[in-house]
# Entry
Amino acid sequence: MKTQTDPHQILTLKVVKFIHNRDMFIGDFHIHSKFSDGKMTIPEVVDFYGQKGLGAIAITDHLCETNTPIGIAAHYLGKTLTPSYYPIYKELIQSEAERAWKQYKMVVIPGYEITKNSISNHRSAHLLVLGTSQWIDAKTDVVEITKLAHEEGALVIAAHPVWTRKNEKQTYYLWDQRDLLSPHIDAWEMCSGTTLLSEVVHSKLPKIANSDLHRKEQYHSWKTVFHCAKESKSILQAIKKQQISFKLC
Ligand SMILES: [Zn+2]
Ligand SMILES: [Zn+2]
# Structure
């Protein structure tokens, strides 16, 4: 005799499967470690975010220009990646990415924040390069940086491109030049911690939400939500195609 399956049970199973397949997870792609001016080591960053249950992060330490007074100071103070430290940084991110996946099912994307700091805010620009494995000299012209990054499948993000509503150094160059640069830049940060940056939010530019975390206390922030496969390529594609949403958490 055949047993009949309860139709409600089938529906429940379908819904569960649907939710499972959507692979919803949260990412944060602007995080500093002790390799520049962050307070945690890279393994500490991985454990901190892994224990919070995030699905993906990027380590983005400063890679400063060496031809400006502020850049020279950053080098002198050890607040920037240097060509000699970069191989160690890269190797550590790779081994921590393997551990993060095994231990937390969290993807760790290698990156850095190209930091062009001038005395003038209007000549200053910070660019996140996500998914890179090459050293790019921070003196390189912005469009050239985007070309080099795109050649290896990396993304370039305009970091805090407008007034951050905080008493800190501002970086307006990318926003001032947005008509010229927007075809080259993959996404623009639309928040500064918990504050939405209305200029970016109300623009038609592609967006991303990150914490720019230097200390644990800066964790609470707008972040980016994904419904794609939890692996580096799909995550970068989702940002590029703007198949993302945003959440304050
Ligand atoms: Zn920055
Ligand atoms: Zn930063």
In short: The first strand starts at residue 25 and ends at 31.
